Structure formats: structure tokens, C-alpha cells
Amino acid sequence: MNLTIALLPGDGIGPEVSAQAVKCLRAVEEIFGHQFKFIEGVVGAKAIDKTGNPLPDSTLKLCKEADAVLFGAIGDPKYDNDPDAKIRPEQGLLKLRKELELFSNIRPVKVFPTLIDKSPLKKKIIRGTDFVIYRELIGGIYFGEKHLSKDGTVASDLCTYSEAEISRIAHMAFKAAKTRRKKVTLVDKANVLESSRLWRKVVSKIGESYPEVALEFLFIDNAAMQLILNPSQFDVILTENMFGDILSDEGSVIGGSIGLLPSASVGESHALFEPIHGSYPQAKDKDIANPIASILSTAMLLDHFKLDEESKAVVIAVLKSMKNDIVTPDLDKNSKYGTNDVGDFISSNIRELDDHPTINRENIWLGKSTII
Ligand code: IPM
Ligand code: MN
């Protein structure tokens, strides 16, 4: 398969981790006989420094023309503590999501058995955790009308959703549930918010056309608690933009490191793949950032193009790095391996997969697997 991939390394640790992801895609390209063409674009704080714009037109054009976007990370501390900054790196990512109409953000959360001791939570609580968050990505409070009074003392952000916006992601969530453990949990705040009540109404109606899928409802405050009390109860979590943002960071704690969680953002005609973690500026250029979230995002990319074997090959190589304790210091504080070493190990293992016939490839698929 020929794929043109827009590569947007972005800020902080973004360039380091996406370089490892590229290494892995290069290995896949070589072993499976594909052709991947990477074209790099600037985004975020780097793009502001260079052009004054966090998403320059040339980058947007590149992403629109590519088959997929591989994204690193975005954000820079110099903007975080400046509430008056008019231009912010994050605006680049938000605009990109909106322009590419990436309405569905898919974030799988699972506990890797070899890393079960790394979690701050008890083993008996987290064992068997395997759920996926379907987060609406281009609506809600993130994109509603914003207002700041003239004297700067009153501010508001509007949370708006239409039936059409809810319905398109709801269908994706139900379809995913059909291939998994057949349960959708809608997370909302329908006891308070009008927009949440619309979500319940629309999703309940859609649920009727998926009779094999059980539909449950949870208020966001309760969901935040349930997620760490009993995470294995969840299969597909469907939710709006901001609740999904918060729940997915919380979910990342379950597995032991936010550096493990990949994501796919998809729409009708475009798709973007990125780790869920941020730019982690404290770790920039120290060769300590965990590249696994970025590497697993390439597995989701391959999956998106129905390259199942290729995707499995990446996941298996990642599992092998965990099993052999070839991990970055976030997972093992005494580790002598850096970002690059882990990327090298995983990419060379993709090349050598055939030497290890003992691994059960059948049950390994990022979004679906229960046994790894
Ligand atoms: C994420 C990030 C972004 C978000 C930021 C960087 C705008 O936290 O992808 O979860 O809030 O969506
Ligand atoms: Mn986030």
C-alpha cells in the first residue's frame, strides 16, 4: 500500500517520540512491502515562533492532502501561565481537528499484564481492564462561543451540541461495541446540563437499532469514581469532548503511565494519530520520554487502513519490549534505556517477528483484544 503521511512532530517531546514511531513504520514498510512517504509540517509553539501561526496554511494543506496525519505533541510552558496570550500552541491542534472534521477520538485503555505492577492501583482492581473511550472531538465547550466582558471580570464558554453531531459518533461507538464486549456507557451530566439531556435522548434512540449492544448511562462524577474503583466494568465509553478529555487522562493512570496510551481521531475523510500525552517539556531532549504511546498510535494507523497483520506486528513488538523490561524510566526508574533505545528495540523486533513463532497473534489487536 502507498500512503502519504503528514508528520507533525510538534513541541516538547513530540519530535523524539514521533521519530520512534517513524522508525517502526519504516520497519513495517520494509517487512511487509509498503511505501510510506512522510512529509513534515510545523505546528504548535514551534510554528508560532516560525510563522506567528500555530497551524500555518502550508501545514493544513499538507494534512488535507495526506492519507493520514501522525502527530507528536503540542504545548509550551511559556504560554501556559499567560492567560492574556492571544495566540496559543493548542489552537493549532484544535483548528486541525476542526478543519479535518475529526469528530471521533478513539482512546483505548488497557492494562498490559507485564506492567500490572507499575500501576498505582491495586492489581485486583485493574486486572482485565480493556475499554475504549469514544470522545466527541470537535464540538461542545471547546468550540462554543467564548466571551470575556470588557472589564475582564466575567467569562463564559458555551457548550452546544446538535443531534447530528451526537449521532455520528454514537453510531461509531455502537459499531465498535458490536465487535467487542457489546456494551456502551454514555457518560454525561444529564441531571444538570441540557446538552447532556440531548445526548441521552439521541443515544437512547440510536441504541434501539443496536439491540445486541447494552446501553448504560453514568453521570460524569460517578464515572470518574467508577473508572478507578472498577475499571473492568467498561467496554465502550461514549462521551462529549471535555468529559472525554478528562476521563482519558484518568484512564491513563490505570495502566501505569500516560506514556502508553495512543489515540486515533477520525472523520469522514481524514484521520490523525497521536499519543494522548502532552508535550512534557521537562523531559524534552533528555531521551527519557516513553515512545510507546506514539508507537501504538502507528498500530492504530495501520489498523485504520485495514493492515491488520502489520498492526499486530507493531503491538507484538511493543509487548516484547515490556516483557524484556526494555522500557523508559517512567515504567522502571532504574532503567538504563532511553527513548531511542526503546524505539530501536521495538522497530528491530518488528523486523524479526518471524523468529518468534510462540506468540499468539490471533488475540492481539489494539482495540479488541482481551488476552495479551
Ligand atoms: C488532548 C489534549 C488537547 C485537548 C489539548 C492539547 C488541546 O489535552 O488531546 O487530550 O484538550 O483535547
Ligand atoms: Mn487531554
State the main characteristics.
binds manganese (II) ion, binds 3-isopropylmalic acid, 372 residues, alpha/beta, disordered C terminus, ten-stranded mixed β-sheet, 2 domains, Isopropylmalate Dehydrogenase, 13 helices, 12 strands
> What CATH architecture of the largest domain would you give?
3-Layer(aba) Sandwich
| H-E string | EHEHHEHHEHEEEHEHEHEHEEHHH
SS strand fraction? 15-25%
Quick one: CATH class of the largest domain? Answer: Alpha Beta
**Helix content class:** 40-55%
What is the CATH T-level topology of the largest domain? Isopropylmalate Dehydrogenase
Alpha-beta content class: alpha/beta
Number of spatially distinct domains = 2
Basic shape: globular
Largest sheet geometry: 10 strands, mixed
Unreliable residue stretches: 356-372
Number of strands: 12
Strand order of the biggest β-sheet: 2-1-3-12-11-4-5-10-8-9
Q: CATH superfamily name of the largest domain?
A: Isopropylmalate Dehydrogenase
Task: Give the count of helical stretches.
Answer: 13
Question: Kindly state the mean pLDDT as a whole number?
Answer: 94
Terminal CA distance reads 28 Å
Estimated radius of gyration? 20 Å
Query: Bound small molecules, which ones?
Result: 3-isopropylmalic acid, manganese (II) ion
Protein architecture, described:
The protein has 13 helices and twelve strands. It has 372 residues and is of the alpha/beta class. It folds into two domains: 1-113 and 257-372, Isopropylmalate Dehydrogenase; 120-255, Isopropylmalate Dehydrogenase. Strands 2-1-3-12-11-4-5-10-8-9 form a ten-stranded mixed beta sheet, sandwiched between helices. It has a two-stranded antiparallel sheet with strand order 6-7. Helix 7 crosses helix 8 (194-207) and helix 11 runs antiparallel to helix 12 (308-323). The protein is globular. Residues 356-372 have low confidence and may be disordered. 3-isopropylmalic acid is lined by residues 74-75, 90, 93-94, 245, 276.
